[in-house]
Amino acid sequence: MSLAEQSCYTLINVPMDSEPLTEMQLRQDLEKGDVKTKIDALKKTIQMILNGEKMPSLLMTIIRFVMPMQDHMIKKLLLVFWEVVPKTLPDGKLLQEMILVCDAYRKDLQHPNEFIRGSTLRFLCKIKEPELLEPLMPAIRQCLEHRHSYVRRNAVLAIYTIFRNHDFLIPDAPELIANFLEGEQDMSCKRNAFMMLIHADQDRALNYLSGCIDQVTSFGDILQLVIVELIYKVCHANPSERARFIRCIYNLLNSSSPAVRYEAAGTLVTLSSAPTAIKAAASCYIELIVKESDNNVKLIVLDRLIALKEVPAHEKILQDLVMDILRVLAAPDLEVRKKTLQLALELITSRSIEEMVLILKKEVVKTNNVEHEDTGKYRQILVRTLHQCSVKFPDVAPVIIPVLMEFLGDQNELAAADVLVFMREAVQRFEQLRPLVLSKLLEVFPTIKAVKIHRAAFWILGEYCTSGEDIQQVMTLVRQSLGEIPIVDDEMKKAAGEVQDEEIQSGGAVQRLVTADGTYATQSALSTSSVRKKDEMPPLRQYLMEGDFFVGAALSTSLTKLALRYIHLHKDAKKQNSFIAESMLIMATMIHLGKSGLPTKPITDDDVDRIANCIRVLADRSDFMNDIFNKDCRGSLSLMLAAKIEEEKAVQEAAEKKVVRVHADDPVSFTQLINRTDLGTGENMFELTLSQALGMTNKKDSDPIGSTKLNKVTQLTGFSDPVYAEAYVNVNQYDIVLDVLIVNQTSDTLQNLTLELATLGDLKLVEKPQAMTMAPHDFCNIKANVKVASTENGIIFGNIVYDVSGAASDRNCVVLNDIHIDIMDYIVPATCTDTEFRQMWAEFEWENKVAVNTNITDLAEYLQHLMKCTNMKCLTPEKALSGDCGFMAANMYARSIFGEDVLSNISIEKPAHLGKDSPVQGHIRIRAKSQGMALSMGDKINLSQKKSLRPGA
Amino acid sequence: MVLLAAAVCNKAGKAIISRQFVEMTRSRIEGLLAAFPKLMNSGKQHTFVETESVRYVYQPMEKLYMLLITTKASNILEDLETLRLFARVIPEYCRNMEETDIIDQSFQLIFAFDEIVALGYRENVNLAQIRTFTEMDSHEEKVFQAVRQTQEKEAKDQMRRRAKEIQQKQREMAKGGRGSSMNSFGSSSYSRNDTSSVIDSSIIEPTSKPSYTAPSKPSGPSKALKLSTKKKDVDSFVGMLESEGERVVSVNKTVNNAVTKASTPAIDQEGVHITVEEKISVTAGRDGGLQNLEVHGIVQLKINDDKFGRIKLAVQNNDGRNVQIQTHPNVDKRLFTSSSIVGLKNPDKPFPLNQDIGVLKWRFQSQEESAMPLSINCWPSENGDKCDVNIEYELEQDEIELEDVLISIPCPTGVGAPVVGDCDGDYSYDSRKATLQWSLPVIDSSNKSGSLEFTIAGHPDDFFPVKSPLFLKSLILKDVVTVDGQEPVKYSKEVLLYVDKYEIV
């Protein structure tokens, strides 16, 4: 068995900077040294063996000179040594020296020191060879009766593993342990014995449990845990037993140990789906989340709750517990809160909505007092939740809106922006709410602090203010936030008047300064007053002065809308004209300011165009433009909202589709008729996860051997070489197994034939293949393991070296062809949200830009091809890609099994002037955290887009 | 819960050492550990990562991470507790908590890790226990080694004596004028004997316990003989040890140990072997009252010869006291209650061969003082800041004989050794455990009572609970006749009684 396949219990990563000791030196130390040198030498030996060295000559030295030592450290180190050292010959036979070792261990099992006995027993758990264990059996049995519990509990474990691996060595183990369990007092021993019975002989375990089922609550937590495990297992294998244990599990649900409560709750759910049981389990979970301070616990238990919710029958019960679930919000961690809110939102019903909104409102108020880095984000989540609440239950919207409006004045842009998105939807969809929203918005408008919020607020006001009063009020607000107009004149005045201000200031009239309109100048002698002056600049004017004219453009459109509406409302021509004039003045002054050079950045051409357009519309006042401004705008909003709702619905439907329904033609299964193996429909969770974790659930090779295996065979040498070699490359999750077939094509015996391999990239050879001798025309297989640590293009290269028997020449050498490791085996498509993508895009340091060079002429086809050959997933929705406009941009994302992210963005076009058959042009940008990943991905794309040429050619 | 592995990683997440608790291949564990640094998230307030197959739970510690890899169904609460324990173990061995430190102490850490988790399940241990377990400081071993030393010494002495005798004889023989060739032969054979005695002392002293060549496989001629010689040895070497300044803590332990061990293979077993085993645990009040006395007994039957597979045991229970007797589920209960005969329910089925089968169990519980085998009376009286303590014992039942009784009295720490005035038997003071050990080789009707007097600074309350892990040897009255087809069968019998707990609180 090769080192990589052997079970491994210890890993020590020692930096190999120093010169490694030779076997000679080690032997000297082990033989002659004092206790300390021996310890050091033994440690070195173990480390070297762990690193794949083989030191067969040291074995005897250790047996002769180290084994007889009585020093405790040496004894313990020896246990590790025997754990790691190969105990068999290559042909699987036990080494003869091991008999001596075995005898030494028999003595240790009878050692007066209880700890040596105990640790020796524990070591025996890891021994696989029955020949070694057999002579030790009587001694192991005796240890069961040792006075010290440390020995007993390890003896039980040893017996357990021996029975599991070779039951013929101790056929009466279950009985032995059952008897032992009866008389045992120590908790640890009892636990181990009970555990052994669970796995070896469930009936006995059950007998024991039924004997003491009433005292279960008084047991220690570790014993309770295995009892829960037993109950789970028994009930899983034999559902008819369920009834017996529900009571016991329920008792354990009130155990003093939270771990037991958690486990019991999980088991209770599998035992019974009665509402009371589910409710008890769910309350237990909630209690755990609230009481445990650790975030890990909270999150994982929340996951269990969410899993509980997935079952439709259980959802009803959880719905009653929504209020309890919301208690979790007291936890400070953002992730926990996010998950909780998500869960609560999914469980909300019309009965509980009002209460929930109340609680959420309280939470919102709470966030006002606490300033913490996460508060902003939390507030945002709260807003989103409230938003979704009101979408689900429109009745509560009037209650929610006032609360949410408070956020508009918030420093935090995120929460405020979310509020406005919500407002926009509410105003559009619920007509009855419009007056409320508008009045509220007008009220809080002066407190708004961020430019984006202003822009969005202007839009809502411009779109939905219909009454004359409202329109007038908006106008006043606009004037207020712009300050005196025309702005340029005002600013000039201010600049000129600065001197005066200065004088006044030195005169000591501070109050005048406060009332002053504020200037942009900072040459003031007193820095405090100048800062204050700056602050007092009306918000809109400040944005404009800073060069942000986009808000100006938005304001202009809103004003235009309002003005057009105003004309409809008021037939008085004078009023009409004055309003329009005012609007136009505002717009004009903005353009003026933009061109004046006063702001830090001049106005952009786009904004000028937009504002000028608005002025023109107001001047012309054509019906056509009126329609565009007042109807089509709103129409497009409602279109967008409708599309959004549709999308949500689709997602929901997709989720619902996953729910397994029983089809009419499904076979009915009768419990009585099912045979045992079929019964475990849901596999035993514990074993399933264990085998998953150990990587034993290998992907099933669904394809017949021919198609897949042969595809992966690489020829390593030529057919006319004296030694022919080919390798089958088997890629597992973290390692690559090379199965090399070597054929001796000569009629000489080849001696010392060694396969020497080396790697390039993030690959590591786990162990060197051994040398061998090959008869004429003989063939053999050699396996080599290569460890992979990250997704990078790896190359394995090497040669075969051998001696020809009888020939006096030097060693012969055959150089092997390189084996390229395909990274696509490690890359799996993954999804992430848009924001996550952007964030990663900004964070990742390595970018690889690949020019498109292909013969594919269709944009969509190219994208499909790329997705197929890179295993990446397209994040851009299908709709955005549909249609034919000659260019295309899409984001793709994938993740390696090592957890590395790789992002790519493709921008491709089909130049119109080149005709129909011209290939796709453009480039692909790949971003990744590590250089290797970005490079290999780029290589892959380069290679595969060229490849696509071949079938066509 | 199943804990797959525990690892210590450096700041970058690279594993420095890792110990696996379940069987897994090297490539798998290396892969899992290699994936960790990429999965590890900083800036979040939780410290676990779940992948498709496993869960990582970790805890940052200065420049290191303590990492556990568990299955996904594992109990997170349990895992976190284990993780905390792991994290506390590391500073025990590594002061600086740096990578180099971890590498230096890697084996120590691995040993400590082994104590925390067994086969993926958490053991119920605390930091202090881990320390004791890894230190492996066993009193029994020390005692054992001391015994060996004395034996060696004795053997040498005896050898020297013998050598002298032989020399003398030779001289006499030389005087007698025997042949010189004979002479030389004799001397050479003795010198050989000289060297071999170190290896196998039993040649020279056949009555002593077989020595270190086979340290724990007693093969002495008979149990009783072995015990008594051993005890003698113990007495002598304890005295010697103490004179050498060695601490000798609990003599009885080794003796007890030897007996229990010896009890299983035991004396020559006949075709049918019956073992009667009793365990006693006593808790008594300090003013003499008995709080609880519990005796558990078991009759074990071992059939060594398949001829006698189908037998019945006639049992006679003379004890009128309230003893609850239970039979093994396979034993015919009715037959037992009606005629006190132990036989299988299915008379055609034989008892299993070569196995110890418990056929009868009984439990006796009492609060009557007379049921107690040995009563211990402790009289502390305050005398200024000192305290005079009088302890006396009394054998309550004349017919039993107690061997190797050891009474340990806890003393207040930090006030020095107690001054012992009057003492029946031997005493020793263990300053490490702060206990005064009073040992009595044999208590029977000839020395029914005895006392110990000592003075020490302290308070009367300091002297409780007095513990007395003693070894009792007595005979429980049972008349056993074996019958198979009404034919008597030869059988061997063994009666054991040992003490679980004997405590005066």
TrEMBL record, chain A:
Chief place of localization: cytoplasm
Record-linked SUPFAM superfamilies: ARM repeat (SSF48371)
Record's GO cellular component terms: COPI vesicle coat; Golgi membrane
Membrane topology according to the record: Peripheral membrane protein
Keyword Transferase among UniProt keywords: no
Domain of life: Eukaryota
One GO BP annotation of this record: endoplasmic reticulum to Golgi vesicle-mediated transport
Domain Clathrin/coatomer adaptor adaptin-like N-terminal: residue ranges: 22-527
Location in the cell: Cytoplasm; Golgi apparatus membrane; Cytoplasmic vesicle, COPI-coated vesicle membrane
Domain Coatomer beta subunit appendage platform, first and last residues per copy: 810-941
InterPro entries to which the protein is assigned, alphabetical: ARM-like, ARM-type_fold, Clathrin/coatomer_adapt-like_N, Coatomer_bsu_C, COPB1, COPB1_appendage_platform_dom
Molecular function, one GO term: structural molecule activity
Keywords from the UniProt entry: Cytoplasm, Cytoplasmic vesicle, ER-Golgi transport, Golgi apparatus, Membrane, Protein transport, Repeat, Transport
Coatomer beta subunit C-terminal domain: residues covered: 664-803
Subunit field text: Oligomeric complex that consists of at least the alpha, beta, beta', gamma, delta, epsilon and zeta subunits.
Function: The coatomer is a cytosolic protein complex that binds to dilysine motifs and reversibly associates with Golgi non-clathrin-coated vesicles, which further mediate biosynthetic protein transport from the ER, via the Golgi up to the trans Golgi network. Coatomer complex is required for budding from Golgi membranes, and is essential for the retrograde Golgi-to-ER transport of dilysine-tagged proteins. Required for limiting lipid storage in lipid droplets.
Name of the featured protein: Coatomer subunit beta
TrEMBL record, chain B:
GO CC terms in record: COPI vesicle coat; Golgi membrane
Sequence ranges of Polar residues compositional bias: 192-216
Biased composition (Basic and acidic residues): 150-175
Purpose: The coatomer is a cytosolic protein complex that binds to dilysine motifs and reversibly associates with Golgi non-clathrin-coated vesicles, which further mediate biosynthetic protein transport from the ER, via the Golgi up to the trans Golgi network. Coatomer complex is required for budding from Golgi membranes, and is essential for the retrograde Golgi-to-ER transport of dilysine-tagged proteins.
Disordered, as annotated region: 149-229
Coiled-coil segments on the chain, per record: none
Keywords: Cytoplasm, Cytoplasmic vesicle, ER-Golgi transport, Golgi apparatus, Membrane, Protein transport, Transport
Protein name (record): Coatomer subunit delta
Compositional bias annotation for Low complexity: 180-191
Origin organism lineage: Eukaryota, Metazoa, Spiralia, Lophotrochozoa, Mollusca
Sequence ranges assigned to domain MHD in this UniProt record: 269-505
Organism: Lottia gigantea (Giant owl limpet)
Family named by the database record: Belongs to the adaptor complexes medium subunit family. Delta-COP subfamily.
